[in-house]
């Protein structure tokens, strides 16, 4: 019982830490690809030190494992970059709520990718979730930045969902810290050309360095690694239920740090998204128990 409580507290800490991503994404003024590159460099260095000190196994395994890590890293890079663009175009509340359509998207994709039975109730919940997303938009036009931010946020959720499905089996077979290190390392290699393709003033680094360190060391290296480790002690569905707290905590941080107050439609749309995520996750838990 005490051990299970410790695992639950570990997962809760991961969710709390990761909820800072929305506020940090809005606060840092660098172009999102540059921010993500620096985030991954900082996180990869931190995890490499942990791996060396802890004498973890750094071997990837066979070629199949390498290409799985490579592909999932591309998806994670796409998820992070598009998520930060979504935050730049909208608000912490809209960006995070758009992203947290991913558990419902997973409910659609998992049966197809892992060849498990599809459930009709997931279709109804999926429709409800996207009604919630539509309510977030002030108008159905991509000329509106908030609407464009929502669309990019849902794309980010799609990337995150596919990445999680691909990584699901690997977490049980290899150290979560090792997997996260290689994903950060690969993303650092993918994105280094952004330093030449995006214009930014070096002075921005001097103003954003504290937020970048928090994002790299705290949100990424610590938060995401704790979340990956949690899959060894809880089902993906249980993690999804608790993860639904992330946008709520993120919106609270956005209010406290950036003074962002969500609009009325955001409360309604957010409530529908939150309802579908929790319902789908709880449904999965009870089905597994039976």
UniProtKB/TrEMBL annotation:
The chain crosses the membrane at residues 35-54, 66-85, 91-109, 121-142, 148-167, 179-198, 210-229, 236-258, 264-282. It comes from the Bacteria. The keyword Transmembrane applies. It holds the Pfam family EamA. Residues 13-136, 148-278 form the EamA domain. Keywords: Membrane, Transmembrane, Transmembrane helix. InterPro entries: EamA_dom, EmrE-like. This is DMT family transporter. It comes from Marinoscillum luteum.
